[in-house]
C-alpha cells in the first residue's frame, strides 16, 4: 500500500506562482513513475506532468514552459512548481503513482486562479 498526500493548493491571482507537494508513504520501495493530474469542474481528469523513473519528463502542452515537475527520492516527495498561473489552471490537482502494477492516487488539492 502507498499513501499519497498533496498540499500547497490555494487561491491565487493570474500570473502568480504556487508549488504543490506530494508526500508518499507506506510501501514506497517499488514506486515507479510519479506524476500530477488535474480535474477542472465538468471536465475529465488530465495528465499535467509525469516524471518516470527513467526516461523523459512529460508535460501537457498547456503547461509547458510554466510548470516544472521534480522529485526528491530521499524525502519520497514529488513537487509541481507552477508559474504564470492562468484562470484555466483552476482545478483539483492529484498526485499519482504506481507500484507493482497498482495505481495510487492522493485525495487532491484545489488550485483556484482568479483573474
Question: What's a quick, concise take on this entry?
Answer:
Helices cover 0% and strands 58% of the residues. It is mostly beta strands.
Structural class: mainly beta
Order of helices and strands: EEEEEEEEEEE
- Rg is 13 Å
Tell the overall outline: globular
Mean pLDDT over the residues: 95
Extract low-pLDDT stretches: none
The amount of beta strand, in percent, is: over 45%
Q: How many DSSP helices?
A: 0
Major beta-sheet overview: 7 strands, mixed
In helices, the fraction of residues equals under 10%
Instruction: Find the count of extended strands (DSSP E, 2+ residues).
Output: 11
Distance N to C terminus: 40 Å
Structural features:
7-stranded mixed beta sheet, 11 strands, 0% helix
Describe the protein's architecture and organization.
By secondary structure, the protein is an all-beta fold. The protein is 0% helix and 58% strand. It contains no helices and 11 strands. The chain has strands at 2-7, 10-13, 18-26, 31-39, 46-51, 58-59, 67-72, 77-82, 91-99, 102-105, 109-114. The strands form 2 sheets. Strands 2, 4, 5, 6, 9, 10 and 11 form a 7-stranded mixed β-sheet that branches. Strands 1-3-8-7 form a 4-stranded antiparallel β-sheet, with no helix packed on it. The protein is globular and about 40 Å long.
Amino acid at each position: 500500500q502507498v499513501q499519497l498526500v498533496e498540499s500547497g493548493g490555494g487561491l491565487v491571482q493570474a500570473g502568480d506562482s504556487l508549488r504543490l507537494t506530494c508526500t508518499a508513504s507506506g510501501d514506497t520501495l517499488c514506486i515507479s513513475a510519479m506524476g500530477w493530474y488535474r480535474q477542472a469542474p465538468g471536465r475529465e481528469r488530465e495528465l499535467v506532468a509525469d516524471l518516470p523513473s527513467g526516461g523523459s519528463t512529460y508535460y501537457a502542452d498547456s503547461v509547458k514552459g510554466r510548470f516544472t515537475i521534480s522529485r526528491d527520492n530521499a524525502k519520497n516527495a514529488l513537487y509541481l512548481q507552477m508559474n504564470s498561473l492562468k484562470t484555466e489552471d483552476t482545478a483539483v490537482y492529484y498526485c499519482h503513482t504506481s507500484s507493482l502494477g497498482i495505481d495510487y492516487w492522493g485525495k487532491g488539492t484545489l488550485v483556484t486562479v482568479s483573474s
